[in-house]
Design a protein that fits this description.
Layout lengths: L9 E2 L2 E2 L17 H13 L20 H8 L3 E6 L3 H4 L5 H21 L4 E8 L5 H4 L3 H9 L10 H13 L7 E4 L9
Parallel strand pairs: 3-4, 4-5
Antiparallel strand pairs: 1-2
Helix pairs in contact: 1-2
Length: about 190
């Protein structure tokens, strides 16, 4: 604690705070509306961030309206929503998932119009299949099949490619209201 403010843990020059630090491991946290708004407010006002170049807020699924709350606390900025290539192409047996990911596109465009006058840009990324730790836990034949389904390059996306797009969306101030696919040209086949 520094002057009554929480000092967030820091590693590799990155400071981080999470609800997960305050609840027992494995306990689900289901917050909506005012509770979520208050938690966000406390993380922004009661945590010592010093003078950050970037503030990354990773929000779990189902908290789309928190972007509005975030815009009330910050004078300007850049919101990058996460969607999915499935939100455009659709996929068999996951219709609700596809519908919610498509809705992120609409939310992105509407928020860009609404928050633009406050100096806040809003974009979304629709990633395809990426080499995340979860994905890399799949059987080799599954990974080979998924990689082969990508037109070019014939592999899974790399996390650093995703990070590069996020950085470009932050740096390039003319990006606003965009939903960008990052998927190697993949079009999901029916399952």
């Amino acid at each position: 604690v520094l002057d009554g403010m929480l000092l967030p843990p820091e590693q590799w020059g990155v400071r981080c705070i999470s609800i997960a630090y305050f609840v027992p491991e494995g306990q689900a946290v289901i917050w909506r509306g005012p509770m979520l708004h208050k938690a966000l407010e406390q993380f922004l006002t009661d945590v010592f961030w010093d003078d950050p170049d970037f503030l990354v807020v990773d929000l779990p699924p189902g908290t789309g309206d928190i972007s509005l709350s975030l815009s009330q606390f910050l004078p300007g900025g850049n919101i990058i929503n996460m969607s999915s290539a499935d939100g455009i192409a659709g996929a068999n047996s996951v219709s609700v998932y596809c519908a919610t990911k498509f809705a992120v596109r609409g939310l992105t465009k509407a928020l860009a119009l609404e928050l633009g006058p406050r100096g806040i840009r809003v974009n979304s990324i629709m990633p395809g299949i990426f080499a995340t730790p979860l994905m890399l836990g799949a059987k080799p034949q599954v990974l080979d099949s998924l990689s082969a389904s990508v037109p070019f390059p014939k592999r899974l996306g790399k996390p650093e490619e995703f990070a590069s797009l996020v950085l470009e969306l932050v740096r390039n101030t003319y990006f606003n209201g965009q939903a960008l696919r990052l998927d190697g040209g993949i079009r999901m086949a029916p399952r």
